[in-house]
Amino acid sequence: MAGAVVVALALVFGAWGLWRVLSPAPGDLRGRFGDSQRQARSLQAQVDQLQQRVTTLTRSDQISREANRDLQGTLAERDEEIAGLRADVAFYERLVGSTAQRRGLTVHALRMQPQSDMAWHFTSTLTQNLNRGAVSAGQLTMTIEGTRNGRLEKLAWTDLRQQPTAPGLGYSFKYFQQIEGDVFLPQGFAPVRVTVRLVPQSGPPVEQSFTWADATRDAAPATAAQ
Known about the structure:
Protein name: Transmembrane protein
Number of strands: 8
Strand content: 25-35%
Keywords: Coiled coil
Shape: elongated
Order of helices and strands: HHEEEEHEEEEH
Pfam family, one: DUF6776
CATH architecture of the largest domain: Sandwich
Organism: Lysobacter niastensis
InterPro entries: DUF6776
């Protein structure tokens, strides 16, 4: 029994000594726990920085896309302006250039734009380069031919303006001018042809006809009178 007690005590003290040797001291546990906390805080800081960078890059990409769309829109507008200017230059060269064909008072173009079911806004471009420097002046009226209830019908200027004594629109220019106004079509009237009539202060009247399809087709931007 005494020998067994000695052996048991030896085993107990041996185990206690082994545990003291292998187990970490309380200070080591605290040190390791502190290191883990510092590493966790460092990792969280890195995650926060990365999230901030992602947010910044996402916003930057959004701004770049919006700026690109605005730029594309601006370029499209500039292309339209350039096309319009080129058309104007070509028009001026044909009218007053050294090789321009000399022509008297002419209705160069007519554009009709709908304002409502019955109202239409017209823009008529008048030109002349036969007498350079001379002023062309007079009155503009128009008539519109079409059908209503299966019958041909021609609307006079007074009908189109809905005034029994509607005066013509005055014009006065050296090389070209655009005359604008409004006309009104009756219900059920299907227009086919428009005839513009110019009555100058001197000289015979001038008439120019346009199909309704041509008159309602998109035209060049308006230009100022010269």
